[in-house]
Design a protein that fits this description.
The complex is a heterotrimer of chains A (329), B (267) and C (305). Chain A is α+β, with helices and mostly antiparallel strands. Chain A folds into 2 domains: 5-232, 3-Layer(aba) Sandwich (Rossmann fold); 239-324, OB fold (Dihydrolipoamide Acetyltransferase, E2P). Helices cover 28% and strands 31% of the residues of chain A. Chain B is mostly helical. Chain C is mainly alpha-helical. Helix content of chain C is 72%, strand content 1%. In chain C, helix 6 (128-139) packs across helix 9 (176-200), helix 10 (204-212) crosses helix 11 and helix 13 (261-269) runs antiparallel to helix 14 (275-298). Chain C is globular and about 65 Å long. Classes of the chains: A alpha+beta (329), B mainly alpha (267), C mainly alpha (305). Chains in contact: A-B, A-C, B-C. Chains B and C meet through helix 1, helix 3, helix 4, helix 5 and helix 6 of B and helix 1, helix 2, helix 4, helix 5 and helix 6 of C.
Chain lengths: 329, 267, 305
């Protein structure tokens, strides 16, 4: 099956700055795909390259097999939900949603119907006559969503869509977006710096750093089997064990990642002194100093909690220690 | 922040405001005086006769007509060029940006006499005879900055993602211009235009150098100041001028009120 | 998604954003560059020529003789006089403008904010000539100011003042004081606005902090408010200084027969036909303003504009 989006050796330079540096990517036609990374990692630029707001300095971009590298945004079967929603202030909600239809020449009545249907899809029935300035952040976001979806794009792009919402609303929207995507069956590509969000929503995640993709995989793969220290550190709060420590444990020099929740206070290869406790609500994070390195351990609230200053041994199940071959990141 | 102001400050501030307005209001009073040979105060009597006299003076009407024509055309030119410049400067950071900003401001920053003389010598060198068009050329030049300031301020406030959103939804550049950019810019450009109109209508310094034999209303008034014919007529005309320019300024204020950039703040 | 309407020009502009920029910027640049800059340089070039005293014709040879003429006593007086007036007007305007700007920035709310705003805007954009004319009425011998002094039985004060040489005269309207007052009046709004803008940028928490640390209102004014308002004052002074230096109408209508730079320029390029000298005079304000603007930029005044 033809991939929805294909990047081949795509680079985007701004003078000396390489915002995107040699990226290859394939996004499937029904995937919920996340571009994850810190600020400046190139993920937003990649999204803009798909949308057409930037042109690549090198490489090609295809959408469903057709070369779109030099196509302007209005010729791509792709629509965007902007980070600041970008609702037209001088139009009411219905006219905002119907804008794309108006611009391509649809008649007034079918436009109105389609816009109202799109608003119903995002649970904003009856909001058609209001102005964007009268809406809350969450409502504006839904309008932006409706406006993009009414165009029936083949790929929907979302630029940090949930960043401006408070926690409760964010979690609610995460669920709604996921349901929406399943229902529509089209590819959703969204940019986020929040690894928790990426892991909970996406089918696959691409982790970006410094303009390059460090790893692409399912949330489980990226979390349990990070390929580089950067990924291990950025996705979930992992312990990264230095080469010396790893050599003492398994006899090979490499860096390795160990998830805090996989460690138990049982007989194991590491020994150290408890330095601090942090109460996280449903769990407790304990920091243990082993051979000059702080190891973080996450235990459930009901579990055994050693006291400060106590000497403990740290153990883990086989396979929890993940060796990372590459050392860049 | 908005605590009680010290009384002295309040008096000084309001006094200052009055200082700005009372002289002009005095002219209104003088327009009704019966005394026509001097500026006697208090006026010996009040009359409406000077209004009729002014109405019947053909030179006043001619000057007024010329001023209106010049103001209209200069405003249109200033709107077009000022908006183009503002669009270019606000859109992108290109290397000549600061130079352009400086260039646009220059005609109003340098003393009017310099602008006036420069234009006059340019016309002489190019052998262009003085006409309504030379007046318009001069006015448009310094009216550009007025529209420019208003347009730039509004462009800066308009997020660039609006243009991207429009194109993302399928609109070409022209459609985006028509459906998104223009509606958002309209009030700012209009406000700038109104201020440009007021500026052109009142201008005298540059105009004396570019008008040749013609008289705009301010030039007419200057003549009357130096060689008074009928003083009260001058007062009536002055009153009319104040009222005529009062309207565009008020209009520009209401058009941009409530937005961050109220028109006229940067002259 | 349906195809967007055919628009090859739009496509091309998207592909080449610099082309769009060029199109936007060329018409105004042509106008300003050719019409304005061109004529400005033409004028300034003339200051390097000289006039032949006998024939009255312009000698198109490069020379600094015309600039030398500026240092002749009568001409130099004009320069000094003008700069002195510009300085006096600037200082006076700053003093009068400050309370207005301060009140408008810190204390005016709601309706009063609009009152102050329009109260400064309307005179700013009103006809320059009408404003000058109104003062001719006020300062006239039979006008309101004299009448006020008489009614208050203070005419002797006025007469004493008018007999001071230099700034006095036969009546206010033919004295330097009169000229000073008119300049002050006409340029006042130009001083108020930048000061107000600068003061509005002062966060109220800064004033509260000053009070919290023990400063009395007068000290807060001197040590916190004035320094922060300074860029605004400098910005305003750019206008008052520059506009006063080039003005030729106000001193002609209200003032003595001693000339200022503007009048000199006007006179020399007019019937005297001595364009080089007129140009040389015109260069002086440009140079002075150039220096002033550079200093002002360093003091951060441009942010307050």
């Amino acid at each position: 099956m033809v991939a929805a989006i294909t990047f081949s050796g795509v680079s985007r330079h701004f003078g000396d700055v390489r915002a995107v540096d040699g990226v290859d990517l394939e996004i499937g036609s029904g995937e919920f795909f996340a571009l994850l990374g810190p600020s400046g990692s190139g993920k937003t630029t990649c999204l803009r390259l798909i949308a057409g707001f930037e042109q690549p300095t090198r490489g090609t971009i295809s959408i469903f097999g057709q070369d779109a590298t030099s196509a302007p945004p209005y010729r791509r079967p792709v629509n965007t939900v902007f980070q600041d929603y970008a609702l037209f202030p001088h139009l009411n909600v219905r006219d905002n949603v119907a804008y794309g239809l108006m611009v391509r020449g649809d008649a007034k009545a079918p436009r109105r119907t389609a816009a109202d249907e799109a608003l119903a899809l995002v649970a904003l029935d009856g909001f058609g006559d209001r102005k964007p300035s009268a809406l809350s952040g969450g409502q504006r976001q839904r309008v932006a969503l409706a406006r993009a979806l009414v165009m029936q794009p083949k790929v929907l792009l979302l630029d940090e869509p949930l960043g401006a919402l408070d926690l409760k609303l964010r979690e609610q929207m995460q669920g709604e977006l996921k349901t929406l995507q399943r229902r529509l069956g089209i590819a959703f590509v969204f940019v986020t710096h929040d690894q928790g969000e990426a892991l909970s929503m996406a089918d696959r995640v691409a982790v970006f750093n410094d303009g390059r993709i460090q790893q692409v995989g399912s949330p489980e793969e990226v979390y349990d089997r990070p390929q580089t220290p950067f990924v291990a550190d950025f996705v979930g709060a992992s312990n990264i064990l230095p080469a010396d420590m790893v050599e003492a444990i398994i006899g090979k020099r490499a860096s390795a990642s160990l998830r805090p929740e996989a460690i138990t206070f049982s007989d194991g290869p590491l020994q150290g002194v408890v330095e601090s406790h942090a109460f996280l609500g449903s769990a407790i994070r304990i920091e243990v100093m082993c051979n000059g390195q702080i190891i973080k351990v996450l235990v459930p609230k009901s579990g055994v909690v050693p006291v400060m200053g106590e000497t403990v041994k740290l153990g883990w199940p086989a396979g929890a220690l993940h060796i990372m071959d590459s050392t860049d990141g | 922040m908005h605590s009680k102001a010290p009384l002295g400050l309040k008096i000084a501030a309001i006094g200052g405001l009055l200082f700005l307005h009372v002289p002009i209001l005095l002219i209104f009073v003088y327009a009704f005086t019966t005394e026509d040979k001097s500026y006697q105060w208090p006026p010996p009597g009040y009359t409406l006769q000077w209004f009729e006299v002014t109405w019947n003076r053909p030179d006043v009407w001619q000057a007024l007509g010329l001023s209106l024509r010049v103001a209209c055309v200069s405003t249109v030119i200033a709107i077009v060029l000022g908006t183009l410049c503002a669009a270019a400067v606000a859109r992108s950071k290109f290397f000549g940006r600061e130079t352009i900003s400086l260039l646009v401001i220059l005609p109003i920053a340098l003393p009017g006499i310099i602008t006036g003389i420069s234009l006059r010598s340019a016309f002489n060198i190019a052998d262009i005879p003085f006409s309504t068009w030379t007046i318009i050329l001069g006015h448009a030049t310094f009216c550009i900055v007025v529209v420019y300031n208003n347009a730039v301020a509004r462009f800066r406030r308009t997020s660039s993602s609006l243009i991207e959103a429009s194109m993302d939804l399928g609109a070409t550049y022209w459609q985006t211009l028509r459906f998104v950019i223009m509606p958002n810019m309209a009030t700012a450009i209009l406000a700038g235009g109104m201020l440009a109109f007021a500026l052109s209508f009142d201008e005298v310094i540059v105009t004396t150098f570019t008008a040749g034999q013609q008289q705009t209303l301010p030039i007419w008034m200057l003549e009357e100041l130096v060689r008074p014919r009928q003083r009260p007529v001058t007062n009536v005309v002055a009153m009319v001028v104040v009222l005529v320019t009062f309207l565009p300024i008020l209009g520009a204020y209401y058009l941009t009120r409530g937005t961050e950039t109220v028109a006229g703040q940067g002259k | 998604m349906a195809e967007a309407p055919r628009s090859p020009l739009s496509d091309m502009l998207w592909r080449r954003p610099n082309l769009l920029l060029l199109l936007l910027v060329t018409p105004p640049l042509l106008w300003l560059g050719i019409v304005y800059l061109g004529s400005l340089f033409a004028l300034l070039a003339q200051s390097f020529f000289s006039i032949d005293e006998f024939s009255g014709l312009i000698n198109y040879e490069f020379t600094l003789k015309t600039y030398g003429e500026l240092f002749r006593a009568s001409n130099f007086d004009i320069l000094l006089r003008t700069i002195a007036m510009a300085s006096a007007v600037t200082v006076g305007a700053a003093i009068v403008a400050f309370p207005i700007a301060y009140y408008a920035a810190r204390y005016a709310t709601g309706k009063w904010k609009a009152v102050f705003y329009l109260g400064v805007m309307l005179p700013l954009w009103s006809s320059y000539l009408v404003k000058v004319y109104s003062w001719k009425l006020i300062l006239a011998k039979e006008g309101i100011l004299n009448w006020l002094f008489e009614t208050l039985h203070l005419s002797w004060v006025l007469d004493a003042y008018l007999s001071i040489p230099g700034i006095g005269g036969n009546s206010l309207s033919v004295s330097w004081t009169g000229t000073f007052l008119v300049f002050l009046y006409v340029w006042l709004p130009f001083m108020i606005l930048p000061i107000q803008a600068a003061l509005e940028r002062v966060p109220p928490s800064m004033l509260e902090a000053s009070g919290d640390l023990g400063a009395r209102p007068g000290q807060t004014l001197r040590h916190v408010i004035l320094p922060l308002a300074l860029p605004g004052i400098i910005a305003g002074s750019i206008f008052t200084f520059s506009l006063t230096m080039g003005d030729y109408i106000i001193p002609q209508i209200v003032g003595t027969s001693a000339r200022m730079i503007g009048q000199a320029v006007y006179q020399f390029q007019g019937t005297a036909g001595n364009i080089p000298l007129a140009a040389a005079f015109a260069v002086v304000p440009i140079v002075v303003m150039g220096i002033y603007l550079t200093l002002a930029k360093r003091a951060g005044a441009f942010d307050a504009l």
